[in-house]
Amino acid sequence: MATACGKVLLFGEHAVVHGVEAIAAGLPDGVSGEVFARDGAERLVVDAWSIDCSADDDSRPARAFAALLRALPVAVRGRSVRLETSLPAGAGLGSSAAMSVAIARTLLADASIDADESLVFSAAMAAESVFHGNPSGLDHAAAMRGGIIRYRRATPPQIGSVTMGAPIRILVAQVSPGADTARMVHGVRTRRDREPRAIEPALAAIGGVVAGAIEAIEKADLRRIGELMDINHGLLMALGVSTAEIDQCCHIARSAGAFGAKLTGAGGGGCMIALVDAQSVSTVTEALRPHSLRLMDVTLGA
Ligand code: PMV
Q: Three-state SS string across the chain, please?
């Protein structure tokens, strides 16, 4: 079974689109795939997300599947893929990236082609471009690697790992249905074009947050990681991607004892994360529960 993991963005989302470094963590939940037919038809079936399409259909998943097939060697053609997943779709947890990476790996393995990292990355980029317009590549880099990664958009992309001084425990709360990532990314670009003297320094400040966060994660300095999450959230508010519900949940989590809290992902709805430890986890969980559609307790690096 070929796999790819879901992701949570810890620091630097949106700024990463503009060349700033970002930090993401792979989730234990992910997507696995298998080829179920080699009869020339190219079908994609994901029961968990109600997807059953053919590569020449017009839906978004079908167009992403077709883009991915075009980006892979022709030897993978004519196969149908079924994916299994426990990841929620459209919640900002990297479902489309995990799907893209899992399809690429499944097809390459079935055709006995070496799943070279740059080939999987560029094929997943082709699919993610259908979902997100102008993706930075951060989501599928995280889906490919797992663990905590640092990522900078470049040619070739700069992907490295961050060594954790100790495991990190976060609560991931889905506060509302996620918004369209392409629309949110476009909104930031528009705001930057309208007010470059305000937004460019905010993007650079997110770069400063990321640099500090890498040091803090390596030293397992939870207070500093939490403070940097709070700063990052304030800067995401300045970019215009947070919502009243997400801001409220960040306040609630901090008041209940979280070290820090921030939006995660594209925003406009979707998920927030709160940094907790064994002492604070239950109070923060109970405080967030009434405001969450879904709540996950994730230990990174366990
Ligand atoms: O939609 P999400 O949660 O996968 O977040 C995308 C991350 C952005 O930085 C907003 C966009 C990108 O391409 O990196």
A: CEEEEEEEEEECCCHHHHCCCEEEEEEEEEEEEEEEECCCCCEEEEHHHCEEEECCCCCHHHHHHHHHHHHCCHHHCCCEEEEEECCCCCCCCCHHHHHHHHHHHHHHHHCCCCCCHHHHHHHHHHHHHHHHCCCCCHHHHHHHHCCEEEEECCCCCEEEECCCCCCEEEEEEEEECCCCHHHHHHHHHHHHHHCHHHHHHHHHHHHHHHHHHHHHHHHCCHHHHHHHHHHHHHHHHHHCCCCHHHHHHHHHHHHCCCCEEEEECCCCCEEEEEEECCCCHHHHHHHHHHHCCEEEEEEECC
Residues touching ligand 1 (Cβ under 6 Å) are: 9, 13-14, 16-17, 92, 94, 132, 135-136, 138-139, 181, 185, 265-266
CA 188–ligand 1 middle distance (angstroms): 12
The pLDDT assigned to 2 comes to 61
The catalytic position among 56, 57, 58, 139 is 139
Residue 70 pLDDT > 80: yes
**Predicted structure pTM score:** 0.94
Residue 139 known to be catalytic: yes
pLDDT tier at 185 (50, 70, 90 boundaries)? very high
- Average pLDDT (25-33) is 92
pLDDT digits (tens, 9 = 90+) for 8-20: 999 999 999 999 9
pLDDT of res. 133: 84
Ligand 1 atom closest to residue 7's alpha carbon, by position in its atom list: 4
Instruction: Give me the pLDDT at residue 57, please.
Output: 98
Can you tell me which atom of ligand 1 is nearest the CA of 93? 3
Ligand 1 binding pocket mutation candidate from 5, 27, 175, 181 (most atoms within 8 A of CB): 181
Instruction: Report which ligand 1 atom has the smallest distance to the Cα of 97.
Output: 4
